[in-house]
Amino acid sequence: MEQKALDEIFMKEALIEAAKAEEIGEVPIGAVIVKGGKVIARAYNYREATQRATTHAELTAIERACDVVGSWRLEECTLYVTLEPCPMCAGAVVQSRIARVVYGAADPKAGCCGTLMNLVQEERFNHRAELSSGIMKEEAAGILTAFFRKLRKEKKRLKQEAEHDATESNISGNRADDGKEA
Amino acid sequence: MEQKALDEIFMKEALIEAAKAEEIGEVPIGAVIVKGGKVIARAYNYREATQRATTHAELTAIERACDVVGSWRLEECTLYVTLEPCPMCAGAVVQSRIARVVYGAADPKAGCCGTLMNLVQEERFNHRAELSSGIMKEEAAGILTAFFRKLRKEKKRLKQEAEHDATESNISGNRADDGKEA
Asked: pTM (2 decimals)?
């Protein structure tokens, strides 16, 4: 099978993880780590649930892969992630010596695998990874766009409800004042 | 108390953590996180023991501080670490919105808080931290130098022992051959 078709198969697995994050109200980002043609670790972003800044999909997947392999060196592994890694996760790729990184959508705000900078291919570090980007990017970006659209809609609805409640309470407040004055 | 004196007090705490790493044969790097003048989290590097690429002193300290604060936002916290953070840990500072980073020795190989680059003050990220460096750098660098010197010495001793064993085994091997020919 050609590389692109294989990459799509594993990116679909990362998208399944992203969907799990969405189900529990987390920003939908998913990752899997592949070794010898098999998924050895999977994870999704669950920062809100854990309230830990480090529980990004990639970092958790890397930790799980280390546990499976029994080593902090993931030299024969490929990381598939739906969104371009941030500086922390790109740094974790360097630290764990992952051989290859494949991501879906680029991240214009924090992407450190080619967008803002490229930490996984920095000549001065002691490790560099192969890099492929844009695999199933429409799907990866689409799930994020839909999530944030829903979030904005929900916030708007809550704001309107709060304003409505405030008006109601003002009306009854005025009535109460009227009562007192009477 | 002036800032430098305070910084030295907390850097000594980070050095205590580094010493704990050394005791168990880990590269001696230690970190503490301070909030409201108190140490709320402490950690040391224990990558060899865990075989997880992510168990650097800073990353573990950040996770523990998140657990203590109950939030992934560490906006009122200062990270003290004996060695300049790597890209992963500098990225974790950005992700957790730590207000200030204080480190001891600079890291010419992977330092990402001013040496190779400065990720904690990168204008394009959504968070920047205050930065102080060189606090008790002699002590922080000294413990590392001593550790690696001891490691090299130990490796040399083991190599010499192995060579000695090989010579011994060759001698007895020859004797055995002699025996066969006799």
From this structure: 0.89
